From TrEMBL:
<keyword id="KW-0347">Helicase</keyword>
<dbReference type="GO" id="GO:0016787">
    <property type="term" value="F:hydrolase activity"/>
</dbReference>
<keyword id="KW-0547">Nucleotide-binding</keyword>
<dbReference type="GO" id="GO:0000725">
    <property type="term" value="P:recombinational repair"/>
</dbReference>
<keyword id="KW-0378">Hydrolase</keyword>
<feature type="binding site">
    <location>
        <begin position="29"/>
        <end position="36"/>
    </location>
    <ligand>
        <name>ATP</name>
    </ligand>
</feature>
<dbReference type="Pfam" id="PF13245">
    <property type="entry name" value="AAA_19"/>
</dbReference>
<dbReference type="InterPro" id="IPR014016">
    <property type="entry name" value="UvrD-like_ATP-bd"/>
</dbReference>
<dbReference type="InterPro" id="IPR000212">
    <property type="entry name" value="DNA_helicase_UvrD/REP"/>
</dbReference>
<dbReference type="GO" id="GO:0043138">
    <property type="term" value="F:3'-5' DNA helicase activity"/>
</dbReference>
<dbReference type="InterPro" id="IPR027417">
    <property type="entry name" value="P-loop_NTPase"/>
</dbReference>
<protein>
    <recommendedName>
        <fullName>DNA 3'-5' helicase</fullName>
        <ecNumber>5.6.2.4</ecNumber>
    </recommendedName>
</protein>
<keyword id="KW-0413">Isomerase</keyword>
<dbReference type="InterPro" id="IPR014017">
    <property type="entry name" value="DNA_helicase_UvrD-like_C"/>
</dbReference>
<dbReference type="GO" id="GO:0005524">
    <property type="term" value="F:ATP binding"/>
</dbReference>
<keyword id="KW-0067">ATP-binding</keyword>
<feature type="domain" description="UvrD-like helicase ATP-binding">
    <location>
        <begin position="8"/>
        <end position="260"/>
    </location>
</feature>
Amino acid sequence: MDLEIKCTEQQYTAITSDFSPDTLLGIKAGPGSGKTRTIASRIAYLLSTQSQSGMRPDDLLVLSLTNRSVNDLRARLRAVLGPMACQIPVMTFHSFAGKVVGSKYTDWNILDDDDLRRLARLVDMGRSASSMAELRSHLRDARRSTSDVAVVARIVEMFGSTRVFTHDDVLEECSSLLHSPPKFVDNYKVVFVDEFQDVYPAVMNLVLQISKGRHLTLAGDSDQSIYGFLGASFRHNWERLMERHPKPNIVHLNQSFRSTPEVLQFANAVLGHSTPVHHSVKPPCGLPPLRLSFTSPAEEREFIYDEVTRLVDISEGAIKPSDIAILSYTNREVDSVLNYFSERGRFGLCKLNSNPRWLQSPLSFFMQYVRVLVDPRVNFPLLCSLSTVPSIGEATLRKAISLATEHDVPVYEYLHDSGYEKPKKLGMLPHYVKYIAKCRSELNQNDPDQILVTLLRMGKELGFDKVLGAEAFTKDQLLEYRLHFDTIYSTLQRAKAQKPPEHTVLSYFMENYNNDTLVTSSSIKTSNDNEVNFSTIHTAKGLEFPIVFILSGNNYRFNDTQRRVLYVGMTRASSLLYFNKLSNQFVDGLDHAPKPLFSTRAPNWTSESVSRLLTDLGRRPLTKVHQLASKLAHAAL
Ligand SMILES: Nc1ncnc2c1ncn2[C@@H]1O[C@H](COP(=O)(O)OP(=O)(O)OP(=O)(O)O)[C@@H](O)[C@H]1O
């Protein structure tokens, strides 16, 4: 493959830098400087005839932390490489770890947060756990107090025949398995890691192990490190790498292609950089970030709605709702503005999420049925599936677990196999297990239609419809569920089109339901022009929007991590930034930012400022904009 790369001199140096074994390239760069684009181009170069590397797509391993970042990398690779991009293994660290663990064990299972809560209920923890960390700390306490030791023992006994891991356990297990790696890992020759600033210690151990004896390319920006609460430290990670590579290749990309100089200067002020390391290649737009102060969140919501309406109207539609992102630190603040927009109904709304939306709805429970249909011998999904049947209580389930443990077989085998005598205490449990066996035997696991119908039938038979509270559905909920079913169905269909021969549609779906090879990009980023984007700053990382509102709601006496979160949020804006605060909030650290300071008045849009904004957006000139802008400006006075 021959390659033509459009890039800056610094990017070219990074793209073509040495990739021989046991070397390190660090791409250190600011927001919008083309890190991800440079990684994609470097991979294209590596596979091209120019590099003479003779490497094949599956010699490479490309890792990042979040699904969003992995999706972005895949999209960029498709743009430069076309269909060949599909052959390059690009995955999250957790997927990679899952692959390694899955290559060693067949009987393993991951528990997510919901699973853990169900587990806590099932074993009578007596204390609820709203997060994995909380549950883990309960378990740690339990080990110390004799009265709770029995609880922990029961958990261990229950899953004695199954390996059960939390997401973080999988990373640890993978690390220990990599001491004698599976064959597919041996094949990798070059490793790429994006978003290096967010690599936390358990992931860093993997980076060190997987890159041993191979070339490693890293890209990151310490100013965008926002996962400090997980222990991520760019400096510390880099020092650990330096021990192995005392003379790494380092390329700094200091030109920013995304934001206007005005936005960059303001964002740098938040970080306290008096002399910014990165400069914008764009000419000044003439629109400094707008700093607005509100007396209450209600007033702020009203302003944002009016301002979005004004921007769309004043530009005669040249500014589309999808150009606008409303970002905040927490989901609660984002949702309150989103609900306000939703009540007014004018705009479509897109809440950005790194997971498909159906996985945040109760329908995510269907994944337990999927797991049971693929392999009913794994205890956890079977027990979850049976736990919704009204006539089966937790005592019955526990009885089944202990009997199966006595016979040293999975719960499914004990209940299904007529060779084992079953006490009356088990009630209807064997009947429902037979029902599951029947569903499995009648199901063609390669037929998306049948799979969806089977999942729905199982839901009805096993009492899941009652969990949903089907009688109380509102019209909107029904519409939402219909959309979720559409997504599940189209995901199954894509699984059918993409699955390798050794998989069934169902098993491929089970392994990839959360992965963008199956999930359309629309669930990650809106494709509808009429939808305003809403997101936490963490989820919006790596994305860019012409116009960004950063909501108030934080106490701005922020610490370093909070500053970096704001920096990430602000640098999502390519043209226009609104930075809000409440009037009783103290905004620390912005004293040196360009004037004017926070204003309590809505911006006074003139025909000139609208034209500037549209020029920066590269949108067509407007016919009536002059009249409209002066009319609106007049009305605002
Ligand atoms: N040499 C270039 N010429 C033109 N546009 C470029 C160039 N390099 C990057 N860009 C553009 O700049 C924008 C930012 O690029 P990219 O997303 O790769 O940056 P990044 O450093 O990964 O951003 P972030 O730090 O926010 O994740 C993209 O729209 C990209 O296409």
